[in-house]
């Protein structure tokens, strides 16, 4: 074999070995691809499953949120209904309380032969003066509701003293003065603002601006404004009404006394407000005038 034949033989052997090697590599690549392809299919399948699970979970969450919203709306409705019911009960309690206070005030006055209209007039006068003094509507209304209790302590005073014709002797007057403190003791333990106001009115409506009143002999602005207002309202109505111990005074006599007692028995500012609002006060007196039948 010459050199050319040897070269050709060597080339053929090289090519044959390289093809086999290449074939083997290709087969390996095909197997590796198939393995990886199966793995990828598995991953894709798992991913699809997870995606479906996520979608199902999301739908479940949306249903839960919808149920929570529905429950929240239902709960809000129930809360609103409860609040509305409580407000209604509070209004009913307040109205009942006002009615009880007024009735008790009327009972206290009836012990001394006063008419029910006396406490109505005192209540209205008190509100007029309170508003003129600068109180807001709510506080002025509370004083109006509390003022009928100013003489509630009279329920503990004997009839023989309450209904005595003529003036009291010293001992009787001292006994009569107890009604202010008695009324205060009846009411002061309440936590209700209306009854606390009524306790103050009962306690202080017989105090005098310049001192000398009872039960504590306090004076000036140490006397609560509720007591100072009710004092004027009560005295004006009492002087203008027939009592078992006196006849009603005419207006000019009452006005003269008020001017004389300005800064003495009565708060001078309130006396000025009384005269500034006299038309409204007289209108109340006419509307709630006592009517006596045989």
Give a nutshell description of this structure.
This protein is mainly α. Helices cover 73% and strands 0% of the residues. It folds into two domains: 1-102; 112-287, Hypothetical protein af1432 (Orthogonal Bundle).
Structure description:
- It is a single chain.
- By secondary structure, the chain is mainly alpha-helical.
- The chain has 2 domains: 1-102; 112-287, Hypothetical protein af1432 (Orthogonal Bundle).
- It is built from 10 helices and no strands.
- It has helices at residues 3-111, 116-133, 137-146, 159-162, 170-187, 193-204, 225-239, 251-260, 268-276, 278-287.
- The model has no long low-confidence stretch (mean pLDDT 82).
Number of helices: 10
- Described by its quaternary structure, the protein is single chain
Structural class: mainly alpha
> Major beta sheet, specifics?
none
Low-confidence stretches are: none
Termini, distance in Å?
169 Å
| Secondary structure: number of strands | 0
Q: What proportion of the residues form beta strands (DSSP E)?
A: under 5%
What is the annotated CATH architecture of the largest domain? Orthogonal Bundle
Estimated radius of gyration: 48 Å
Kindly give the count of domains. Answer: 2
CATH superfamily of the largest domain: Hypothetical protein af1432
CATH class of the largest domain: Mainly Alpha
What is the helix content? over 70%
What shape does the CA trace take? rod-shaped
CATH topology group of the largest domain: Hypothetical protein af1432
| Average pLDDT over all residues | 82
Q: Please trace the helix and strand order, writing H or E for each element.
A: HHHHHHHHHH
